[in-house]
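Listing S7. Sequence submitted for prediction.
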Amino acid sequence: MPTHPDLHGDVREICELLQRYGRAIDSRELEDLRNVFTPDATIEYAFEQGTRLEVQKMIPWLAKALRIFRMTDHVITEPIVDLAGDSARSTCRLVASHIQVELDGRERTVIEAGTYTDEHVRTPVGWRIRARRLDRQWVDGEYLSPAHVKLFDRPTGPKQEQ
């Protein structure tokens, strides 16, 4: 039986945590991930050319990996959360759009869908993700390598000069 009496509050906090992850990725405010994950968390992108790293190494990896996109948009569904005291597990679906700009200026959109499976822990500062795994279900389009696209340190809107 959960040790915390506010089950709805716990689930709501975990839902917000998952949304904060998507916002940090899409805004490229990657340091915000330190408020999403525990300091020793592991993140696994379980697909070809994915990776499995501790969050401390994942942040710089993401900063480099996301440069090939003008912008991204992660839409994360409401999770299914299983609470067990001060720990929890959740699964949620993801559909993410990734926009690349080829060297000649043409845009390319790649959309993919997957499932996040997370292990959470209650910390003194609130719920955090201790482990995350992303399993990809499908991809529509093909990603181009950094050698074939413009690189962006920050996301840009469609009307901005590139």
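Caption to Listing S7: primary sequence and predicted structure tokens for the chain studied. The radius of gyration is 17 Å. The chain has one domain: 7-148.
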